[in-house]
Amino acid sequence: QVQLVESGGGLVQAGDSLRLSCAASGRTFSSYVMGWFRQTPGKEREFVATISWSGGRTFYADSVKGRFTISRDNAKNTVYLQLNSLKPEDTAVYYCAAARYSGTYYYTRANDYNYWGQGTQVTVSS
Questions:
Q1: Which of 10, 26, 53, 110 lies 20 to 30 angstroms, CA to CA, from 125?
Q2: Residue 9's closest CA among 125, 85, 119?
Q3: 116: helix, coil or strand?
Q4: Of 73, 76, 120, 115, whose CA–CA distance to 95 is shortest?
């Protein structure tokens, strides 16, 4: 069982930066693929970024590539999402998720993830 707690969201202006953190419980954090998703009212949860268990491989949605960076610190059981050059369309609730490693470096589908955090709101004003 893994429990995930996100933090770091807030209200910022377009062009600003934020760093989201996701703290995980459990002693096997390093064996999980981690991902970030986001969701706005009335829309499906959208993939943002994912990182392999070792941190050596990452993958991003085209909409955030070059602006967002996912990273992890297995010693601290924490995964991060650095959000730069924020745009109003980045406004959403951001969720952290964990997937048991099953031979794939990373996952982009929400259904591949086993555990989810409660989400943190990011609001970008124009």
A1: 110
A2: 119
A3: strand
A4: 120
The tens-digit pLDDT sequence of the chain (126 residues) is 899 999 999 999 999 999 999 999 977 888 899 999 999 999 999 999 999 998 889 999 999 999 999 999 999 999 999 999 999 999 999 999 999 877 888 999 999 999 999 999 999 999
Both structure tokens of 105: 């470096």
Please choose, from the candidates 82, 74, 5, the residue with its C-alpha nearest in 3D space to the C-alpha of residue 49.
Answer: 82
Pair of tokens at residue 85: 């050059």
Could you give the CA distance from residue 68 to residue 30 in angstroms, rounded to a whole number? 22
Question: Could you report the per-residue pLDDT of 68-80, keeping only the tens digit for each?
Answer: 999 999 999 999 9
Distance CA 115, CA 117 (A): 7
